[in-house]
Amino acid sequence: MSNLTDRTAYLRGLAEGLSIDREKAENRLLLEMLTVMDEMAQKISEMDVDIGELDEYVESIDSDLGDIEDALFGEEGEFDDDDDDDEDDDEETEAFDEDEELSFDCPHCGKTMQIKAADIDFDESPLCPNCHKPFFPDAIEGEDEGEDK
For residues 65 and 109, what is the distance between their CA atoms, to the nearest angstrom? Predict the structure, then answer.
């Protein structure tokens, strides 16, 4: 856009070089048009800078959003949009980072335990290292009740 401001400055220089008489109506119109063109070129130049800054900001937001999507939903292609419950359950377990540590508070003694996602056995509840009771007793009781029937 600096080309536009350069061109209006060139036109202004030409007008001054012609020694245009400001008293004539036609000349006043021409000089006023040059003034308006200068202001418009300056505004366009300022808007171009602002648009460049906004573009960088939007790209930054887009990148941050991509990072958040990856953290929440995993890498691209890992999830399908199918409504199959079996696939959704499998995908939920794949969404954990194997090195990620999860915190659980024991419902019995209140002790907090850190477990790596890769070490979780989804078939049985982890035991509290403090009181040695299961963290999720409801899940185990529900399985036992289902076996009695």
Answer: 39
pLDDT tens digits for 36-87?
A: 999 999 999 999 999 999 999 999 999 999 999 988 887 655 555 555 555 5
Rounded to a whole number, what is the largest CA-CA distance in the chain? Answer: 107
| Closest by CA position to 77, among listed 64, 94, 89 | 94
**pTM listed for this prediction:** 0.41
Half-sphere CA count of 18, side-chain side, radius 13 A: 12
Place of tokens 């800078």: 49
Q: How far apart are CA 140 and CA 145, in angstroms?
A: 9
Kindly report the three-state secondary structure assignment for every residue of the chain: CHHHHHHHHHHHHHHHHCCCCCCCHHHHHHHHHHHHHHHHHHHHHHHHHHHHHHHHHHHHHHHHHHHHHHHHHCCCCCCCCCCCHHHHHHHHHHCCCCCCEEEEECCCCCCEEEEEHHHCCCCCCCECCCCCCECCHHHHHHHHHHHHC
Spell out the residues 6+ positions from residue 98 whose beta carbon is closer than 8 angstroms to its own.
116, 117, 118
